[in-house]
Amino acid sequence: MDAFLLQVLNGLDKGGAYALIALGLTLVFGTLGVVNFAHGALFMLGAFCAVTLQSLLTLERVTLDPEKLTAWGTPMEIRTPYIVEWFGDFGMTLIDWSVPLAILLAVPIMLLLGVVMERGLIRHFYKRLHADQILVTFGLAIVVQEIVKAQFGANPIPQPAPALFAGSADIGLWLGFAENAVVYPWWRIIYLLFAGVVITSVFAFLQFTTFGMVVRAGMADRETVGLLGIDIDRRFTIVFGMAAVVAGLAGVMYTPVLSPDYHMGMDFLVLSFVVVVVGGMGSLGGAVAAGFLLGILQSFASMNEVKSLLPGIDQVVIYLIAVVVLLVRPRGLFGRKGVMES
Amino acid sequence: MSKIDNSKRNFLKTSAILGVGVSAPLIFTNAHAAYRNEPKGSTVTFGFNVPQTGAYADEGADELRAYKLAVEHINGEGDGGMLNTFSSKALKGNGINGKKVVFVTGDTQTKSDAARASAKRMIEKDGAIMITGGSSSGVAIAVQGLCQEAGVIFMAGLTHSNDTTGKDKRANGFRHFFNTEMTGAALAPVLKNNYGTDRVAYHLTADYTWGYSQEGSIRKYTEAMGWKTAQAVNTPVGAGDFSQYITPVLNSGADVLVLNHYGKDMVNSLTQAVQFGLRDKQVNGKDFTIVVPLYSRLMAAGAGENVKGIFGSTNWHWSLQDAGSQAFVKSFGKAYGFPPSQAAHTTYCQALLYADACQRAGTFKPSEVGKSLAGFKFDGLGNGPTEYRADDHQCFKDVLVVKGKENPSSKFDVLEVVEVTPRAQVEYEASMLGGNLGPYNNG
User: I need a surface site. Which of A63, A237, B227, B334 has the fewest CB within 10 A?
Assistant: First the structure.
């Protein structure tokens, strides 16, 4: 039972990341009809907002110690972060909390990047074939990756969670299990809650605001909304920015789980597309549900008991499910009629 | 008519016999006979095949820095680095056999097919006399096979699988780096001293040739000293999130987690294992512990504080105090502003060892260079007395057991050497790992 519960938690946690990325992908597809292969790069750029903030907070004053030499004969450097010099313990606290603080940096940056990306490149491909859209956005993703690699290198860069959340929670005790039977890292629990809050916020925004209502109307019938005198293109541009923010926030908060490197977006991109397809192209609820569903199934497929029966199943389970869903229900679990159907 | 034909046949036969008779001594005895990419001008070209893109690009960049330094030193530029401490004094700092060394580079991308393509291009288009480099066993084995077919020498870079000089060894291939068998033999006694003989290990293993090799060696030596293996689970390369593989460890009854992962996978699996509280856990009345059999200082930095106190092994470390290591660190540090990695060290050594072998052989012909390297005993290159064993073209030398440093003094000061395991303790019979060198190929 404890192993079962742990895998459910793993699946929910993993599913949270899948759902957040897939939600952004679906938003873009549902509004603009664009298959955005650069969406994974936005997830990665969000993660690098955390790296950038940490780098800024740890900018150091470098002084040379004339008495100590390095192994290659130059004077040893003494490095002290400016922020610690200026603010003492508070400076240390800021560095410790750099990942959550990076949210404040990521929101405007990702919004700006999203809008620039849509206005500068994507809009020129609205009326082109999906194959063209895939090619151009995939190319963009590679360019972004290489820029990040040139700036930050290829190695993963550690982004520790705040010390307060560094340990694990004994969830088992809350549920009546023995001590230490079900422990789970605090940060992963926070990530799961964070994913829930972001997903709820996006749905609430689309459901309960006038802006959201217009966007939903545009998703259903773009031309009619345009004929009513509403500048739907401008709203869709903002939606693209929102999708970039969602992907970016997913990336920022995932950095303590997965040390960011330039390739992390690509690692998630393919899985997220499978999530979108299984959920149903253009279905926001489908993307979220499929994200959690596939996350949980992937975790269960990795259990030793399952792998002993079906070796290698952990590596293919998501794709197997995608095949089955597409065979049985070609529109995906929650797909709407007419989407991607000519 | 038939008489004329007979005369023609006789003439051809006689000519052929005479031709073979005259040329045979040249073919079989003259070391200066034609061979693949024989250098004709005043230069000789090395081919540096390293990952310049992909997950190991930083390690590849460090290899390339070391190669450039080696070329400088061979050509008599710079401070001479480890040429000053190398026991062989054949190289005089004026190139090799009177020719200056130049180089071309290729990008392995840490993919076997891309690595073979770039090596092929350097051999066929650029006239590389020797190919060297790489950061993966899969790539090393693929490129080694290509070099054997092409008839050039391959001086392997960072490759740790037993197979490179075991079942997949080739006459034209040589490895300076250690292997998983040596890691097991060196690490097990240290684990025994620190954690005792009554332990239960759980292995997470990268699902490819190096992972299997590493798991096999660690299990062999730890089980021999009394440890039990609770479970060994293969994990996909580049899995990213290892949580679904780590959670079964929690209640498996194991009190040791062995991470047979390298590079990015090691960084992620170790970080996540620590997040799951494994390092603070008590099982079977003992402190739970984690072991990372192969460390890369360059990449261990990616795991941050999580490496503290965790044992592993490495081929070389910049903090060593012998004259060779210090000369190399000084030379590299002055050129680039930071200490070299183990990848940089092994590739620098390989370039120097190849150059020295050519100089001693008086030729670049692969079979002669190979004979010059096989069985060669040397010192002064940072690993103590070393031998390129003739039976499998594997270097035998001391192995370093390291531990994540508790109080690092800089961002480069991630590991500390806890034991230098003598060569005798890690040596094994060449036949144990199978394979057959076969004959040298001169192209």
Answer: A63
Looking at the fold, whether B64 and B141 belong to one and the same domain comes out as yes
**Are residues B90 and B119 both part of a single domain?**
yes
Q: What is the pLDDT of residue B17?
A: 53
Residue A168: which of B244, B277, B301 has the nearest Cβ?
A: B277
Average pLDDT over residues A241-266: 94
Strands B200-206 and B256-260: parallel
Distance CA A287, CA B403 (A): 44
Q: Is B189 inside any structural domain?
A: yes
**For A268, nearest residue in chain B (alpha carbons):** B240
The answer, for A75 touching chain B at a CB cutoff of 8 Å, is no
Considering the domain architecture, whether residues B200 and B145 belong to the same structural domain is answered as no
CB contact under 8 Å between A156 and B267, yes or no, is yes
Query: How does DSSP assign A139-153, residue by residue?
Result: HHHHHHHHHHHHHH-
Nearest to B245 among A74, A156, A302 (CB): A302
Q: How confident is the model at residue A219 (pLDDT cuts 50, 70, 90)?
A: confident
User: Is the CB of residue B230 less than 8 Å away from at least one CB of chain A?
Assistant: no
- Do A259 and B268 make contact, defined as CB atoms within 8 angstroms? yes
- One DSSP character per residue, B341-373 reads PHHHHHHHHHHHHHHHHHHHHTS--HHHHHHHH
Q: Please tell me the pTM assigned to this model.
A: 0.85
With b meaning 16 or more CB within 10 Å and e meaning fewer, what string describes B354-376?
Answer: bbbbbbbbebbbbbbbbbbbbeb
Instruction: List pLDDT tens digits, range A35-90.
Output: 889 999 999 999 999 999 999 999 999 999 888 888 888 888 888 999 999 999 99
* ipTM of the complex, rounded to two decimals: 0.84
Q: Cα(B353)–Cα(B349) distance, rounded to whole angstroms? A: 6
Q: Examine the domain organization and report whether B109 and B218 are in the same domain.
A: no
At a CB cut-off of 8 Å and minimum separation 6, what does A236 contact? A31, A32, A118, A215, A218
Residue A174 forms contact with B (CB below 8 Å): no
Domain enclosing residue B231, as ranges: 181-314
B296, B314, B332: which is the final residue of a domain? B314
Residue in B79, B108, B275, B325 to test binding to A, most A beta-carbons within 10 Å: B275
A72 neighbourhood in chain B, CB within 8 Å: 329-334, 339
Residue pair B182/B426 in contact (Cβ under 8 Å)? The answer is yes
Residue the block writes with tokens 């498996």: B252
Beta strands B399-404 and B311-314 are: antiparallel
Contact yes or no for B248 and A303 at CB 8 A: yes
Same domain for B173 and B199, yes or no, is no
Pairwise pLDDT comparison (B249 vs B239), residue with the higher score: B249
Same domain as B210, residue B153: no
The span from the CA of B122 to the CA of B116, in Å, is: 10
Residue B232 at interface with chain A, using a CB cutoff of 8 Å: no
CB contact, 8 Å: A116 with chain B?
no
- Sorted by sequence, the CB contacts under 8 Å of residue B8 that are 6+ apart come out as none
Residue type at B393?
H
Chain B residues touching A14 at Cβ < 8 A: 241, 243-244
Q: How far is CA B406 from the centre of its chain?
A: 28
CA proximity to A197, closest of A278, A288, A101, A295: A288
Of B294, B314, B334, which residue sits at a domain end?
B314
Query: Total structural domains in chain B?
Result: 2
SS3 sequence, A321-336?
Answer: HHHHHHHHCCCCCCCC
**Under an 8 A CB cutoff, do B244 and A183 touch?**
no
**DSSP bridge pairs for B258:** B203, B291
How far is Cα A61 from Cα A95, in angstroms, rounded to an integer?
15
Q: Which residues pair with A208 in a beta bridge?
A: none
Give domain status of residue B157, yes or no: yes
Percent of chain A with pLDDT over 70: 98
